[in-house]
Each structure stands twice: as C-alpha cells, then as structure tokens.
Design brief:
The chain is an alpha/beta fold. The chain has six helices and nine strands, in the order E-E-H-E-H-E-H-E-E-H-E-H-E-E-H. The protein has a domain of 151 residues: Dihydrodipicolinate Reductase, domain 2, CATH 3.30.360.10. Helix content is 28%, strand content 21%.
Length: 260
C-alpha cells in the first residue's frame, strides 16, 4: 500500500530480503544496489550486516573462496523481554534458585544454546541460512561457500562473530589489517601485547563494527582469522536502514540543481 501511494519502503523484516526484485543493501558494501529498487529496499539480517562490513574491503582486494563463521548473539537479538529475562534469571541463579525461562526456549543465565530459529531439513537453522543467502546476495557472490553456526550467549547487547576467511591466494595480515582499519563503518581494536580485542561492551550503543585479532590461519596459507563485535540494534538494524534512506535522499536534486 505504501509503495502504491508513491512511497519508498525500507523494510527491516525478512519478507523481501531474498526477493530477486528487491535490493538487499548495506550502504558501505553495495550502495549502488539501492537505486535499482522498485519501491522496496530490504534491510539485511543483523549478523549478515556485521559480517559483510568486514568481508567487503578484503574481498575487493582478493577474491573470496570460503567463509566459516560462528556467532555469539546477545539477548537483545530476541527483544527487550529477553534482555529482562536474562537479568532476572541471572539474579535467580546467584540467589541459588533454578532459572525457568518463559521468553527464550532455555535460560540464558550463565548458559548458552544454539540459535533457536527453526531448523531446516539440512540441519541448519533459519538464522544460519540467512547469513549464507544474504551474504551471497549483498556481495554478488552467488556461489560463495559459507557455513555458519549461530549461538545465543548471556550478553545483554551486541553480537560477536569469529570469522575464518579463505581467499584465492595468500593475504598478508598487515595488508588486511590496514584495509579494515581504513574501511567505512569499521573500527580496529587490536593490542596483541595486552591481549585486548573487541568486546560487546566496546560497541554497545555505538555505530562502528569493531574488528580485531586478525591473524594467519595456521591450517591454510590462503586463509585469515578475525573477530568482530557490533551493536545489532544500531548498525545491525536501525542505523543501516537510516543510511539507506540517506543514500536515496542524497540523490534527490534540489531546486537549485544541487543535491539535498
């Protein structure tokens, strides 16, 4: 109805993400895709947004061959009620009680569990397949090999991801680090001497996706390992949608012939 009335819709649900006629956009990764819309632009899944911000600057330098990612997803990904339940059940455990979850399928208090989205016949859950299919679409790599394992952890806010990236050839660590440090929307947090790398508390309530612990995969000369954290409420959802709108507004000519 909104499109029929002449509006452009930026949709944050999963309804249109894999529709071939609807762009799926992360402005730092594929901004040009937004202008191919037919009235609707899809906002990607939160874990996919965080991942592609780290992959894109590296893939622009050397072709990707395979990505293996494990996510550590906070309670806020399941909503405000899940966050409050984590607080309450943590108190219950500390007081010696038995936590009983009503919002999530299991208690997150001093616990973790595999992501509770519906399981498919291939053994992967919906959240893991979103990462596969949406990353392929955003990065225009329909044959990209990607495997994800998604886990819910007892963190109130901000998701984390451990990412293994295989390229077509060796990728010097220093070069990858420089590319990520200069990438839009990315913040490098890395101090090997102090063993200090991104944490959810570094990004909670903030826009950048923090990346660190970039290192050579000892099992594969063509692969790198890295760790990232991002506030999935901000960059993983609301901010990304606003940035898409800003892309469109910047292209609208003003009466004087400039841009808004």
């Amino acid at each position: 109805m909104a499109v029929a009335a002449g509006a452009v819709v930026i949709d944050n649900s999963s309804a249109f993400r894999l529709d071939p006629n609807v762009p799926l956009v992360v402005p730092e990764v594929n901004p040009q895709a937004a202008f191919a819309h037919q009235g609707i632009i899809a906002n990607p899944n939160c874990t996919t947004i965080l991942l592609t911000l780290a992959l894109a600057p590296l893939a622009a330098r050397r072709p990707l061959r395979r990505v293996v990612v494990s996510t550590y997803q906070s309670a806020s990904g399941a909503g405000a009620r899940a966050m409050e339940e984590l607080r309450q059940l943590s108190r219950t455990v500390l007081d010696g009680g038995q936590p009983v979850s009503e919002i999530l399928p299991h208690s997150l208090a001093f616990n973790l569990f595999l992501h509770n989205s519906p399981l498919e016949s291939n053994g992967y859950c919906e959240e893991e397949l979103k990462m596969l299919n949406e990353t392929r679409k955003i990065m225009e790599l329909p044959e990209l090999r990607l495997s994800a394992t998604c886990v819910r952890v007892p963190v109130l806010r901000a998701h984390s991801e451990a990412v293994n990236i295989e390229f077509s050839e060796p990728f010097p660590v220093d070069e990858a680090r420089a590319l990520l440090a200069a990438a839009a929307g990315v913040e490098l947090i890395e101090d090997f001497q102090a063993n200090r790398f991104p944490m959810p508390t570094d990004v909670t309530g903030r826009d950048p996706v923090a990346v660190g612990r970039i290192r050579q995969d000892l099992s594969d000369p063509n692969a790198l390992e890295l760790w990232l954290c991002g506030d999935q409420i901000r960059k993983g959802a609301a901010l990304n949608a606003i940035q898409i709108a800003e892309l469109l507004l910047e292209s609208v000519p003003t009466p004087s012939g400039g841009n808004t």
